[in-house]
Design brief:
six-stranded mixed sheet; globular
């Protein structure tokens, strides 16, 4: 009996050590996930790196007040090392999100290729935003030229805010006032040349970026209402939109006392 006990003790100790070692290794093994955090909230009506975000020639431009903030998210690069410890920490943080890497980065592409793709999406978004705004204003794109410049931001999510910024600089609310009503407005959403607004994802983190920048209203594609409501910062009002015209109508109603939809 004593011989059995003497053999079992060392074996149990070795097994425990191995189990602890395996657990430690598991904590450090890279996982196929990315961690996302709230990004910047640049003012489409202002400047970025010393240059106007929106430059318009061929038509008089208004002096505006208030802000129209494009919101972004930051994400770990596809080649970043994300461990179980990192993932668990981010999972329980209200200002972070853990997502499968393939959900935000197409597989098989290098960082340089991804940056190029993001820049192309931004350029296409800018072209659509200009077309949508000038179409809404019934202005000839051959006469009125609009240049958009927002450095270090990629992807299509600023489309809606770009269009709103162009409209505010040229027409305002259409009654002599600012489209923003002098308020700090933020939002997100893709836009087509015909003015349709679409979802882009990351609304939960973008509302936090908006709140941190001082915004009181957040324009969100209608299809993203539920995600935008998750962990919504206090004092930030959600306004769902489906089109450029819809967004303009809601912004006007915000400062004239009209009916404004909510999520």
């Amino acid at each position: 009996m004593s011989g059995w006990v003497s053999k079992k003790g060392p074996l149990a100790a070795v097994a425990a050590v191995l189990l602890a070692a395996l657990f430690a290794v598991a904590l450090l093994v890279p996982l196929p996930y990315s961690v996302m955090v709230p990004g910047d909230a640049s003012d489409a009506l202002g400047t970025a790196k010393g240059k106007p975000v929106i430059t318009i020639t061929g038509h008089p431009v208004r002096q505006t007040s208030g802000e129209l903030r494009t919101t972004t998210i930051g994400a770990t690069l596809p080649d970043a090392r994300i461990t179980l410890v990192d993932a668990v920490r981010a999972w329980f943080a209200t200002d972070q999100a853990v997502v499968p890497r393939d959900a935000i980065y197409p597989s098989g592409k290098s960082v340089a290729q991804l940056n190029k793709l993001s820049a192309q999406e931004m350029q296409q978004s800018q072209q659509a935003a200009v077309s949508a705004a000038l179409s809404y204003l019934k202005l000839d794109p051959d006469t009125v030229k609009v240049t958009l410049d927002l450095p270090d931001v990629g992807g299509p999510s600023a489309g809606l805010l770009f269009s709103l910024g162009i409209v505010d600089k040229i027409q305002g609310d259409g009654h002599g006032g600012d489209l923003t009503g002098g308020k700090d407005i933020a939002g997100t959403g893709t836009i087509t040349a015909k003015g349709a607004v679409g979802p882009v994802g990351g609304a939960t983190l973008k509302t936090q970026a908006a709140k941190a920048a001082g915004a009181t209203v957040f324009l969100v594609p209608k299809g993203e209402c539920s995600s935008a409501k998750a962990n919504l910062p206090s004092g930030l009002r959600l306004v769902p939109v489906v089109s450029l015209q819809d967004a303009i109508g809601s912004l006007r109603a915000l400062h004239t006392g009209g009916s404004v939809p909510s999520c």
